[in-house]
Amino acid sequence: MIYLTEAQTSKLISHELAYIAVKEAFVAAVDDKATLFPVVNAQGANLNEMFSLKSASTPNLVGWKTGSYWPDNHKHGLPCHGTNVFLLDPLTGMLQAVIAATTVNAYRTGAADAVAVSYLAREDATVLTVFGTGHQAEYEVLAVSKVRSLTKVLVVGRSASKTENLVKRLLEKGINAEACDAQAACEQADIIITATTAQAPLFEAQWVQAGTHISAMGADKVGKQELPTDLYSHARLFCDFASQSIVIGEFQHSRNTPIIEIGQVINESATGRQSADEVTIFDSSGIAIQDLFVASHILALSQQ
């Protein structure tokens, strides 16, 4: 059995590796030989301590990802979020590898956004608005900057200090960023990313301009919500995995609106953006098959 530590995987992961692996995973997810199992959400002994298990199998990859959130870890100098991926030998079921993947998970989630943007956003999209100021919001922006030539990033956050901190970090990485209020940010945006833990809409539907692409990255539990449902009547909806999206993803709040899985767009069995004026929405509830593919790529790279 192989064990890759957080230090090892953090050095091996990149936006490019994550993008390739996640794109492959999205295509595999719509193959009839893949199975994705219901998410298990659980909690620790104390208030707000949470962990989850997401599992999947394909002919060549079998395993699961565990994610944890222990909010008081920062008091002990430890990260609040933790991720590990477990790979089984598909022939024997024996444990093949354990991949410590906390940093990897941030890249993997950003890559899902980047794949969606590359297939659904307008080619000339240059202004990105991001709701959220946590570490994941930064990874989302960096990943998307790899697939679109961004001229400006508008950051919307509840905390002025956290908003300015994210702006500073993006500027240090060469990305033109500034703080902005929600309405002005939406009205200027070609791409909107939501990366929050919100349980109510972050903006008004009428603020979204024709031709905008929206990536909703935060909803992964019942009750979470980032987008106004008024958007759905005049937008096309896409997701990573439809049966999960309508249970724990953003589209748990949709009502009888057709939803296309992004893997179908990639393999050309469904169409993506159909016009420059169309509003497209991608819901990323996060699927285990992404984690398995990224972990497999990292494992292979570690053995070169």
From TrEMBL:
Pfam families: OCD_Mu_crystall. SUPFAM superfamilies: NAD(P)-binding Rossmann-fold domains (SSF51735). It comes from Shewanella pneumatophori. This is Ornithine cyclodeaminase family protein. GO terms for cellular component: cytoplasm. It comes from the Bacteria.
